[in-house]
# Entry
Amino acid sequence: MALGDNKRRIKYALRLAGWSYENGNRDKLKRDAASVAPSEYQSEMDGSLFCPVCYTNLNRVPKQKEHFSNGREAYFCHLAAYKDIKCDLRSSRPEGKRYETYEEARKAIDDENLVIVDGFIKNKPELPDEAGGEYDETPVEDIDGPISDVPIGRHRGESFKLPSKITTVAGICRNFDENLYKYYYFPNQKYSIQLVDLLHPVEEIQEEDDGPKLYYGTIERTVHLGEHKRPDNIRMTYLKNNQSCVHDFCIKLQDKHQKTHGITDASVGRTVIVYGAVSDNGTGLCFKNLGWGEFALLPRKYDELLA
Ligand SMILES: [Zn+2]
# Structure
């Protein structure tokens, strides 16, 4: 089950006191608003919470308590008063998006609402100066990919020739809150899908899966193998997984490879995003042979969005 397959597709609201859907400037809202997760809601925020996609007002339900009486988490929802304003987040089920014309798809790309992904960067790009560089400062290379034939036309079998990107998971993690509601087209998809609906929790994975997908997981422990802890030795980074049939679930890569992505002994509790296949690993499962652009730590400020 992907992240979005539930009522909680609205991961955060934009909060800006004094702003209104009818009279407010959207650029100002996007620039000045604070992000508020459903769990951070307080009653004085009423009237100043807005949808990050359609910008109409949001309510939190239930209003007073953190949880429903049956234990389900509180969530944000749109107001009936704005039911005529179309919003892709109104639906509790993810919907793929198709485009009427080439121009419409092209405009969605130009407006950064649609990203055509041709692939992820496999090898570390040559960097001019690496000495002393913090991992966070590693430039995220978003390379232009080929013009791709993308089957996202509204009419059966229709495809458009659109510019693609060869990207990195780190690039997806940067401005993750904004990216969550962009539509992404990965190779072999039938339509474009919002990122929020493309992220699969490692916690719920029960078996191998050859088809690469986007996953997110929490680092439970991490072990640098080998007596002398050489950079070439494998580091096993174990991710939280509650499935009784899975003994453990890890990222299995050389220590130096993980280290350049910021994963060290100090990374327990951090969230990692991976684009890859799920492979067998003895009694457990793993991600292995990941390319340079295929995994990244999620900046801590976004952890709440995947909680
Ligand atoms: Zn909305």
Notes: Residues 102-110 form the longest helix (9 residues). The CA atoms of residues 67 and 73 lie 5 Å apart. The mean pLDDT is 90.
